[in-house]
Design a protein that fits this description.
By secondary structure, the protein is an alpha/beta fold. It contains 17 helices and 18 strands. The protein is about 35% helix and about 20% strand. It folds into three domains: about 200 residues, Rossmann fold; about 150 residues, Rossmann fold (3-Layer(aba) Sandwich); about 80 residues, Alpha-Beta Plaits, CATH 3.30.70. The termini are far apart.
Length: about 450
């Protein structure tokens, strides 16, 4: 059955935004969640990352805004900075046709002073992580007296990361008369208990993963524990994916594996909680720009990443939680594209985990043969480099200004320029790898909108 956005009673500005972003047919979670949410119901929705849940709650909270009232009316809590930034970006896209809607991000790793100034200037929607939001509430910089919609995104990950006490503290600042929308990939006991504390007669919506089982191939490959890193390298050499996500259990494992893959010639970077915000931003930009072939991440750090058309996921160690395993492999085999998920099984403990995972999924994983040894991953170099320009919206620079400077003034072919991400103080541009140095020199020597700007290339040469 086709569920068109046209069937929703949205304000005209949001309908225009839907046309602008190209949304026509709702995803399953949007079709199930949006109508009752727009009617004011509390929701507890089970849906995986990448299922379209940001739109499922985003259009609801934007529909309810009183734009004339410059006070926080909606609060979205996310477990990680990356997810909060991603959600805020999407909400700004949806609100592009609404006049003077201010969406403010409150996350750790950012200047609290700048955030206070943003709050003083008035904001309609707050998107943030629990720790930083609670701090602004304690310091009386953020007030939620006019809050009408509260959203918890990735509630199970908040539980895993130990944020539930902070969430409870935030709830104490929220009006009791509000709409509460809770989204979670899984519903362990802790999330069920949280739902009972914060919601009133919620409608439960369950949407299965968007992974097409006919397109997702799952393989288990065995090796000795001391061969784990080498096995991941051999698998990457065998499949040579355009992009791959490799899961590790710990931050140290991420660093060790990404360093090992880089030493063999691959374009590989680690993503975990010990990176600074600037380092995390740089990694994510390169991933989205096609400037990075292999991302090695912990499960928490990878949660909420929106990675389209990911052909390969490698689990370097099996998770003890079958639901977490299903979530990880759900990063591939999406949107009608084939995907491959390979699980490395390297111990008796992992044999037991594999049995539990297979019982949970109701199917046996294909047993694969270990590929031949390889010490050369030089084929895993990206097509693009990411050019980071140290100027953005604060300098009144637009994407068009950047594109014009690169094409008209620097003489780069338009098809050599990919995704452009414009931020408050920076602008990141995907440039074809063989033209990246030329683009950098042109920006450093020239001007953008009559301004001298600094720039650098992210990642190794």
């Amino acid at each position: 059955m086709i569920h068109s956005f046209d069937t929703l009673s949205l304000r005209p500005e949001l309908q225009e935004a839907l046309q602008q972003v190209g949304f026509v047919e709702m995803t399953p979670i949007q079709a199930r969640a949006l109508p009752p949410a727009l009617a004011g119901r509390d929701l507890s929705a089970q849906a995986q990352t990448g299922s379209g849940k940001t739109a499922a709650f985003g259009f609801c909270l934007l529909q309810a805004l009183d734009v004339e009232l410059r006070e926080p009316q909606a609060l979205v809590l996310c477990p990680t900075r990356e997810l909060a930034e991603q959600v805020a970006t999407e909400l700004r896209r949806f609100a592009a046709r609404m006049a003077d809607v201010r969406i403010l991000t409150l996350c750790g790793g950012r200047s609290t002073r700048d955030q206070r100034q943003g709050l003083d200037g008035g904001a309609h929607v707050i998107v943030g992580t629990p720790g930083r939001v609670e701090k602004h509430l304690r310091d009386h910089h953020l007030r939620l007296g006019r809050l009408s919609v509260l959203v918890l995104d990735e509630a199970d990950r908040m539980l895993d990361m130990g944020f539930i006490d902070q969430v409870d503290a935030i709830l104490s600042y929220c009006p009791s008369q509000r709409q509460t929308l809770l989204f979670s990939a899984t519903f362990p006991d802790g999330v069920e208990a949280l739902q009972a504390r914060m919601q009133r007669d919620p409608l439960r919506v369950v949407v299965e993963t968007q992974v097409d089982p006919t397109l997702l191939r799952q393989v288990a490959v065995r090796c000795r524990p001391d061969q784990r890193q080498a096995m991941v390298a051999r698998l990457l050499a065998q499949h040579r994916p355009d992009s791959a996500l490799v899961f590790c259990e710990t931050r140290d494992d991420c660093d060790a594996l990404s360093a090992s893959l880089s030493a063999l010639g691959a374009s590989a970077l680690a993503l975990h909680g010990q990176l600074s915000q600037e380092e995390r931003d740089d990694v994510l930009v390169q991933l989205l720009h096609g400037s990075l072939r292999v991302l090695v991440a912990t499960n928490v750090a990878a949660r909420g990443l929106d990675i389209p058309a990911l052909p390969l996921v490698i689990l370097s160690e099996l998770s003890p939680d079958p639901e977490s395993h299903v979530h990880r492999i759900g990063r591939t085999g999406r949107a009608g594209e084939p995907g491959l998920a390979i699980s490395v099984v390297a111990s008796d403990r992992e044999n037991e985990r594999l049995e539990r995972i297979e019982a949970f999924m109701g199917q046996a994983l294909e047993r694969g043969e270990a590929p031949g040894e390889s010490t050369d991953l030089s084929a895993l170099q990206p097509l693009n480099r990411s050019l980071l320009i140290l100027a953005g919206r604060e300098q009144k620079i637009s994407k068009g200004d950047v594109l014009g400077a690169l094409v008209k003034e620097a003489g780069l072919p338009a098809d050599a320029i990919g995704r452009i991400d414009l931020g408050r103080k920076t602008c990141a541009v995907a440039i074809r790898r063989d033209l990246a140095q030329r683009a950098l020199k042109a920006v450093q020597k020239g001007r953008i909108k009559k301004q001298r700007v600094r720039a650098t290339l992210l990642g190794p040469d």
